Amino acid sequence: MWGSGPSDVWVVGDGGTILRNQGSGFEPVVSGTQADLNDVWGVSATEVYFVGDGVALVYDGTSVKPAFTPTNFNGKAVNLWRIGGVGSNAWTGGSDGAVFKLASGGSWRSQIPYESQGLTFTDAWAADATTAYVVLGGLAAGVWKHDASGFNQVVMPTETLTA
Length: 163
What we know:
Blueprint: E1 2-5, E2 8-12, E3 18-21, E4 26-28, E5 37-44, E6 47-52, E7 55-59, E8 64-68, E9 80-86, E10 89-94, E11 99-102, E12 108-110, E13 121-126, E14 132-136, E15 142-147, E16 150-154
Antiparallel strand pairs: 1-2, 2-3, 3-4, 5-6, 6-7, 7-8, 9-10, 10-11, 11-12, 13-14, 14-15, 15-16
């Protein structure tokens, strides 16, 4: 769930479901996909992103359109689980180590840390245009910090981390 304000709230779900509440209750929005949608995040009421099983979509103020085709380092389609950001700086990712950053101009760029191959992206938080933290699970669970120098794994406590 994401909203640009109290009278503009978006919800996503299975089978390509997108619902929008503009103050008078939730109404369906045509997504153009039957894929399950897992998360939603936006820059504004006229720039909203949706991610899901093999899809990344964008609402441009008029309609929902494909944003990019999410693939891993081998070009295989991946599922995207989460999306988040600050201002116009967003991060998304999902299965098989897939991590993408929203670049200026609305394009998405792959930002796969080498060590993440085969891991599952579980969350991200962007502090500003260059700094973000990405959580990757799997056999070697870890947190990576991305800044001007690229990705670096963060040393974490030895206790088990749970959400």
